[in-house]
Design brief:
single chain, 22 strands, about 550 residues, alpha+beta, 6-stranded mixed β-sheet
C-alpha cells in the first residue's frame, strides 16, 4: 500500500495521544534538550567503541522510524534518499522507464509495463529478466535497489541486458528515460449502453482532472448513470478529494472539516466549483482497502444521499497529515488533525492496532459508536470506516489459488503462453478452452507448491486442542483416518476449483497482451460488485428507496 505519502494526506488509523500534558512549556523544552544531549552522547560512544563499523545514516533512520512508530503508523520521516519516492507519491510522476520490477531469489523480473512509457515503446515485456543495467551485472550486486538504477534524469539513456522466455541469447534494449505519469484513472468506459464506469486508484495532483475528463467523455457517449470504483484506493491529497466530491455536489456544500491541536489550522472545506452533474445516479464501490481521501468521497456521497455505496466497510482512516520540511532536504509527514465528513462523523477506526488479518476493521461494539444522520435522515455511524448501503461479501481465493499465485505460477505460465501465442482475441472475448486448461494442469505437474485446506486447518486445531486437554489418545485413530480421507489431491482440486483457477489464469494471460486496461475490461462479467451495481441501476425504484432509507 505504497501510496499514502502526500504533501497533505489523510493518514491511517490512529488516535494520537499526548504524553506529559502536565508539563509547562519551559519544562518540556528542557526535557527535549536534555534527551537530545543524551542521544548525541550515546551515538558518539557507539561510533567510537562498538565492535563493528556502524552506518550512521542507517542507524539514525532506524531510531527515528521506531520513535515515530510509537505515535501512529503514518507519521513518517523521509531521508534525503527517499525524497524522489515521496515526490512520486505526491505528484504521480517520476523520471524512469515505466516498468514494475520484482526482485527476489536473485532475479529481477518485469512484472508490469505501463502504457505509453519508454518501457512499452522499447518493447520490454512482462516476464523479461533484467540481468544487467548499463553493463553492471546484477547477479554480483546484493545491496542495491533496482528501481533506483532504472530511474534517472529525463532523456538520459539506460541499456538493459535481458533474458526473455524462449530466446536463448540475452537481448540488449536501450531506453530513453522520460517523465512517467502514474495515472489515477487506469480505466474508464461504458459497461452497458447507459452505465459508465470510472476506476479511480489514487488521489495525486491530477486525480480531479482525470475523473472530470473521464466523466465528460462518458456523458458524450450516452452515459445516464455512473459507477465510481474506489476499491483498493489508499487515498492521497485532500484537495483532490474535495474537487472530486464537487463533481457530484453543488457549489458551497460542505465536504470535510478538520480539527486538531493547532486550532488556527482547523478548517471547513466546501465545494468551490459548479458541479458537473447533481442528478445523475451514482454507485460507489468500496472495500477494506478504500482509505483516507477515498473515504471522504464515499462518505460525502453517502451523507448527502447523492448515491449508493456497494461493497465492504472501508479502512477507517480519519486523520489528516501535513508534510513539514526538515534540514538537509529531509521531510516529515505528521498527523495533525482528524477529519469530519458532512454528517459530522469521523470515520477514524477506534482501535487501529487490532485489525483483521486482511487489514479490515474488526467488529465495533455498538456502545462505542455514535449515530449520525444523512441529509434524508438515514442513520450512519462513526468509529470505523464507511459502511456501504449494500454490503457484499469480500472475495477470498481458495487455498489452491492462493498457493499458485504466491508461487508465481499463474504469471510464469502466462509468460510461456504469450511466447507460444503471438496474438489472442480482444480482452472481453478471450477464454481458455478445456484443452488449454488441461495443458496448464499438466504443466503444473512438476511444479512445487503446497497449501492447506480449511478442513485440514480445522483438523490441526482439533488435534492441538486434544493434546492440550490430554485427550489425544482417545481420538488419535479417528483423526488419522480423517486425514487419510481428506488428504488433498492437487489434480482433483484443480478440477474441483476449475472455474476459479481458469478465471485467474485468463486474467493473468490477458495482462500480458493488453496490460491493466485489458484486465479491467475482462473482469466485469465476474465482478460481483459491478454486477450488483448494474442490477441496482436498472431498478430505479430500489435505488431511490435506498436513498430515502426505506429498504436495502
Amino acid at each position: 500500500m505504497k501510496k499514502y505519502f502526500r504533501s497533505i494526506c489523510l493518514a491511517a488509523p490512529v488516535v494520537a495521544g499526548l504524553a506529559f500534558v502536565s508539563f509547562r512549556q519551559d519544562d518540556r523544552l528542557f526535557e527535549i534538550a536534555r534527551n537530545l544531549d543524551i542521544y548525541a552522547t550515546l551515538f558518539k560512544e557507539l561510533n567510537a567503541y562498538y565492535v563493528d563499523e556502524i552506518n550512521p545514516n542507517q542507524l539514525i533512520k532506524t531510531s527515528i522510524d521506531n520513535m515515530l512508530r510509537t505515535l501512529d503508523p503514518y507519521t513518517v520521516y523521509y531521508a534525503e534518499d527517499d525524497i524522489e519516492d515521496y515526490m512520486t507519491m505526491t505528484t504521480g510522476k517520476y523520471n524512469g522507464i515505466g516498468a514494475m520490477v520484482n526482485s527476489s531469489d536473485g532475479k529481477h523480473t518485469v512484472m508490469m509495463v505501463y502504457e505509453d512509457t519508454p518501457a512499452q515503446k522499447a518493447g520490454l515485456q512482462l516476464g523479461d529478466e533484467i540481468m544487467k543495467i548499463n553493463g553492471v551485472d546484477l547477479s554480483a550486486r546484493e545491496d542495491f535497489d533496482t528501481g533506483k538504477l532504472l530511474k534517472g534524469q529525463a532523456q538520459t539513456s539506460v541499456t538493459l541486458t535481458i533474458k526473455r522466455y524462449g530466446i536463448a541469447k540475452p537481448l540488449e534494449i536501450t531506453l530513453n528515460r522520460d517523465i512517467v505519469k502514474v495515472t489515477n484513472v487506469p480505466y474508464y468506459g461504458m459497461i452497458s449502453d447507459e452505465v459508465g464506469y470510472i476506476d479511480l486508484k489514487d488521489f495525486t495532483a491530477t486525480a480531479s482532472r482525470e475523473v472530470r475528463n473521464a466523466f465528460q467523455e462518458l456523458k458524450g457517449k450516452g452515459m445516464k448513470s455512473v459507477v465510481l470504483d474506489l476499491r483498493d484506493n489508499p487515498g492521497g491529497l485532500l484537495n483532490m478529494a474535495i474537487e472530486i466530491s464537487n463533481i457530484f455536489i453543488a457549489k458551497g456544500e460542505e465536504v470535510v472539516s478538520t480539527k486538531g491541536k493547532v486550532t488556527e489550522w482547523n478548517k471547513t472545506y466546501t465545494a468551490y466549483n459548479p458541479a458537473l452533474d447533481i442528478d445523475i445516479p451514482v454507485v460507489v464501490l468500496t472495500n477494506n482497502r478504500s482509505a483516507s481521501a477515498a473515504e471522504i468521497v464515499s462518505g460525502v456521497i453517502q451523507d448527502y444521499d447523492r448515491g449508493v455505496l456497494i461493497g465492504q466497510r472501508t479502512y477507517g482512516k480519519g486523520l489528516v497529515q501535513t508534510t513539514r520540511d526538515l534540514s538537509f532536504n529531509t521531510k516529515m509527514k505528521i498527523t495533525t488533525a482528524k477529519y469530519y465528513i458532512p454528517s459530522g462523523r469521523c470515520i477514524q477506526a477506534i482501535d487501529y492496532s487490532h485489525r483483521n488479518e486482511d487489514g479490515s476493521v474488526g467488529k465495533i461494539p455498538d456502545s462505542l459508536m455514535t449515530a449520525f444522520k444523512t441529509r434524508n435522515g438515514r442513520p450512519v455511524f462513526d468509529g470505523g470506516g464507511i459502511l456501504p448501503d449494500i454490503v457484499t461479501e469480500k472475495e477470498n481465493y481458495s487455498p489452491l489459488a492462493s498457493a499458485l499465485g504466491r508461487n508465481r505460477l499463474f504469471f510464469d505460465y502466462a509468460v510461456k503462453y504469450h511466447f507460444e501465442h503471438p496474438t489472442i482475441k480482444p480482452a472481453k472475448e478471450f477464454h481458455l478452452t478445456d484443452n488449454e486448461y488441461n495443458t496448464f494442469v499438466k504443466w503444473l505437474s512438476d511444479k512445487e507448491y503446497d497449501y492447506t485446506t480449511q478442513v485440514e486447518r480445522d483438523l490441526n486445531d482439533l488435534e492441538a486442542s486434544a493434546k492440550k486437554e490430554k485427550s489425544i489418545d482417545v481420538i488419535d485413530d479417528q483423526l488419522k483416518a480423517l486425514r487419510s480421507k481428506l488428504s488433498h489431491s492437487k489434480d482433483n482440486d484443480l478440477q474441483i476449483g476449475k472455474a476459479e483457477i481458469r478465471q485467474i489464469l485468463e486474467s493473468e494471460i490477458i495482462k500480458h497482451y493488453y496490460l491493466e486496461k485489458g484486465m479491467r475490461e475482462a473482469s466485469f462479467t465476474e465482478d460481483k460488485e459491478v454486477k450488483e451495481a448494474l442490477t441496482l441501476l436498472k431498478d430505479k425504484n430500489r435505488y431511490n428507496e435506498i436513498l430515502k432509507g426505506k429498504k436495502n
